[in-house]
Amino acid sequence: MAGGEVKLPQFGAGDRIGANIRYSQGASGFGEGSNLGSISLFNAGNNLAMIWGSDGVFVNGAGIELTTAWGVQAAYEHHWSPTLWSSVFGGYAAVSYDSTAQTYFSDAIGCTATGSGAAKQTSVNTTGVAAGAATNCNPNFQYLETGLRTTWQPVSGFYFGIQTMYTYVWTGFGGDTLNLSNAGANPVVGARPSGFYNVSNQGIFSTLFRVQRSFNSD
After folding, report:
1. 107-133, pLDDT tens digit by residue?
2. Which pLDDT band holds residue 168 (cuts at 50, 70, 90)?
3. Per-domain residue ranges for the chain?
4. Per-residue DSSP letter, 128
5. Rg value, the chain, Cα
6. Which element (helix H / strand E) includes 113?
């Protein structure tokens, strides 16, 4: 990881800009460098952007295939006054699996039968999917987050904040149709209805309002 921050007092007292870049193998949480809690996004009409994030994958009797992840982030913070400031931020991350790991995923979902030893999943698979409807089965994915946040501090340690953010996921398994079930050890996130889902890129806007009181903030 490499990054830095530059103070910009000529634009406002407390103004600053910063950026970083990350790369990892076998430590995706560090390589992605994002606070995104759930990268899978559901949309109307049984449309879904779906990924699996991991540090590595393996089957019994084989070594661990490490996951590669990298990301870049940048932000600029401007102070309108000593008690009011805004920041604009953005980040992009990409996660990829090598050819052996991709074979494990393909077998586990049921796209192919190469004999890799990967157990077929009960929660996400091609059971009942029309022939040729699941042909990609590539778990590689990318995502983008960008947003704007404004914070007001009327008194020391007391904050009001509002943040609007846009998230876009370039999905793994894009173009496939998969059967998602609430059965098994790993049920569909959020207990979504079981059924057939079209896997495609998805985006979403979100807004968060926050009130925070910190004690002993000095």
Report:
1. 998 888 778 889 888 888 888 887 767
2. very high
3. 2-139+176-206
4. T
5. 21
6. none
